Amino acid sequence: MKYILRILFFGLLGILARGYYVKELLDYKDGEKIIGLGVLFGAFVYLPLFLYHRWKDKNIADYTLTDENMRKMSGKEKGKH
User: Fold this and answer.
1) Theoretical Cys-Cys bridge with 22: which of 31, 54, 78, 80, CB 3.0 to 4.6 Å?
2) Tens of pLDDT along 42-73?
3) CA–CA separation, 68 vs 77, rounded Å?
């Protein structure tokens, strides 16, 4: 999955670079369309895959503010002085 994400990331950068190239040197409207498609690809394809890869083995309860986690952060364990 790590290598797929890297390939997609560099592909995304290539799409955006191509869009800016086309926008500046060839045709403004076509460049804007290419940039827009690159942004959509990044937001709806790359970002969900990246987030899934980073969070797949994590416990979400470790990252939420529950009463138990608040006591751990403040250093006050229940029953301990």
Assistant:
1) 31
2) 999 999 999 999 988 888 877 788 888 888 88
3) 8
Q: How far is CA 8 from CA 14, 25, 45, 51, 54, in A?
A: 10, 25, 9, 14, 15
DSSP string spanning 5-49? HHHHHHHHHHHHHHHHHIIIII-HHHHHHHHHHHHHHIIIIIHHH
Which sequence spans correspond to the domains of the chain? 2-57
Global pTM reads 0.70
> Rounded to an integer, what distance in angstroms lies between the CA atom of residue 29 and that of residue 61?
47
Q: Which two tokens stand for residue 38?
A: 């690159």
Residue 66 exposure: Cα atoms within 13 Å on the Cβ side:
7
User: Residue 26: its pLDDT value, please?
Assistant: 86
Indicate the pLDDT class of residue 80, thresholds 50, 70 and 90: low
